[in-house]
Amino acid sequence: xxxxxxxxxxxxxxxxxxxxxxxxxxxxxxxxxxxxxxxxxxxxxxxxxxxxxxxxxxxxxxxxxxxxxxxxxxxxxxxxxxxxxxxxxxxxxxxxxxxxxxxxxxxxxxxxxxxxxxxxxxxxxxxxxxxxxxxxxxxxxxxxxxxxxxxxxxxxxxxxxxxxxxxxxxxxxxxxxxxxxxxxxxxxxxxxxxxxxxxxxxxxxxxxxxxxxxxxxxxxxxxxxxxxxxxxxxxxxxxxxxxxxxxxxxxx
Length: 252
Hints:
Elements: E1 2-3, E2 17-18, H1 29-32, E3 41-47, E4 51-57, H2 69-77, E5 80-86, E6 92-97, H3 109-123, E7 131-139, E8 144-153, E9 156-166, E10 172-176, H4 196-206, E11 209-216, E12 224-231, E13 236-239, E14 246-248
Antiparallel strand pairs: 1-7, 2-7, 3-4, 4-5, 5-6, 6-10, 7-8, 8-9, 9-10, 11-12, 13-14
């Protein structure tokens, strides 16, 4: 596996790249991922509350070789197609194709990027408002090109996504979408009600220290106790930017 060399050698690896412009829209999600409903049999279904995972397979599942963990995962995943959808909208939120599929194509990274972008536009019509390419990896051993995305809205990062393209078939091989649906972002308030300085003052005012005896060590010496100040067990997780409320960490 190797890191892709950016098309423009002057661009730094850390630069987030925008999506290419939308071209001809994909006609069908199933076609884009190489999934033919008539060719697959649904072997099981898992209800996750708001989402539904369906597992499909062509032909018979592999035989169980033994009771090991490796054998279990092979039985569950080998030649399987796993699709997770939102139960309310029916929208694909993630999927993985575990089939070892080879085709006649030899797509370039640029061609794979175009396919990946059009897939995102099919799921999210305004994908170029949120998705920025963070990393491109050419996996020549497995004949795929993987894309890592950072999602940003109004200058604020809010999630990550992953997508891979089979360079021999042109199909999307796997997709793991963001936890937060970009379509809901327009309903969110993106301007903080308190400034960073106000948040810093809130943090300092609530920061708690405890005076404790702590065991210390020195090389070639016995352990000894020293008096120290440590942050108390009541720790601050973050400051709510809208209300200024201090959110305390949950104690485990």
